[in-house]
Amino acid sequence: MQHRRLLGVLHPMHRPAVFFLTLALMVLTACAAPTASSPAGPSRAAPSEPAGATPSPSAEQSSLHGQLAYVDGADPQIFLLDLATGNSRQLTEMRLEHAELAASGPMRPALTCGFGPSGLTWSPDGSLLAFAYGSCDSVVYVVDLEGELRRIGDGRGPTWSHTGRRLVYSANVPYSPCGVECLGPSAPGEWELRVVDVDGIGGPLPLSADGSTSLGSQPVFSPDDAWIAFAGPPAGDDLDPETFGATYVVRADGTDARHVANGAWPAGWHPDGRLLIVAEESSETHAIDLAESTSTLIGTVQGPAGLSPDGALVLETAFDPVSGAGGIRLVTVDGDILAEAPGYPGAWAPNSVAVAIVDLAASAIVVIGSDGTTLAQYAITGSSGFTNVAWRSGS
Fold it and tell me: Which of 30, 66, 143, 314 has the fewest CB atoms lying closer than 10 Å?
């Protein structure tokens, strides 16, 4: 493992001189698909076959348990897959009107954003699934296991606290071809990260009162819910012009925002809460010790990576710049490669024994064990072009 001392780690947060928001948004919308034209999918009451996994499970598949939520269909909807039986059922019946914003959204002619559900994430008890619905500007919803929807607010990228009481998500930040310099002043709190008490009766509120989380995205709670890491504009006066983002941490009450590293975005926390995993523009993944302000290289990737819940494994991603095809590597934190396969990142089992990835070329969800062996493959249509999948907590 390689260690290095970080410069400028945990300094008070500063506003950027330049922010290449276009590129950042393209990263966040990497699962883009053609805009859906049909207004509604089939009824939720009938079990769905389009995403239908194998009705006669193999021995390896039968040994699996749990449920996966995933997005599929030409009119993208969320489905729930039982890993043991291979049976899927449609969970949502989203329609175009569900994507209508409470506020008028900005025009984004330079971007092609996929239309449909994205950012799927289960509550810690597995009773609710949060997601965003729409295109570049979307609406955050939660849905229960019966398909009942609750609208949270305009935004994207929801993340649960570990208590399951709070949701934090990103505001719909306006598109700007030349970064922050071209954006006019916003209303107080308009571009801050948003937080909502899911059990309460109030609506979402800005996370910070002083602009500390303005233009923030990809929030993720620390294991003790004391801090939230998020991506934001780069900080400092002497920046590489190709640096488009940075990682920050802020207390869960919206105070004490601190700059961690430029050219990086948060990919998760180590279970001990001391190490923050970041993926860098340099195609490296680092574990940052927030107490010591040091960084350890734990992988080299061309895209987002994910740490297993137990902190032992890393799911790395790579993209072929010519074909656009995606691939994954399953590696230990010491760099030992356990598996390589085509596909895109999916979701870890809550107990870290397996990871589900999406292979769009094969129109399948593939489950890989923590030792690198392929455990099962489930057929999907793949017609949505999305790679969203979330392993249900507690299942």
Answer: 30
Q: What DSSP line would sit under 28-39, residue for residue?
A: HTTT--PPP--S
pLDDT per residue as tens digits for the range 189-228: 889 999 999 988 788 999 999 999 999 999 999 999 999 9
- Provide the CATH number for the domain around residue 143: 2.120.10.30
67 versus 44: which is more confidently predicted?
67
Q: How many domains are contained in the chain?
A: 1
Neighbours of 360 (CB within 10 A): 19
Q: How confident is the model at residue 305, as a pLDDT?
A: 61
pTM: 0.83
Cα–Cα distance between 104 and 154 in angstroms, integer? 10
Give domain status of residue 43, yes or no.
no
Q: Which residues have a Cβ under 8 Å from the Cβ of 90 and sit 6 or more positions away?
A: 41, 42, 44, 46, 47, 48, 51, 77, 78, 79, 80
Structural domain harbouring 293: 2-36+49-103+112-391
Reading the block at residue 54, the tokens are: 């194998």
The stretch 266-281 carries a mean pLDDT of 83
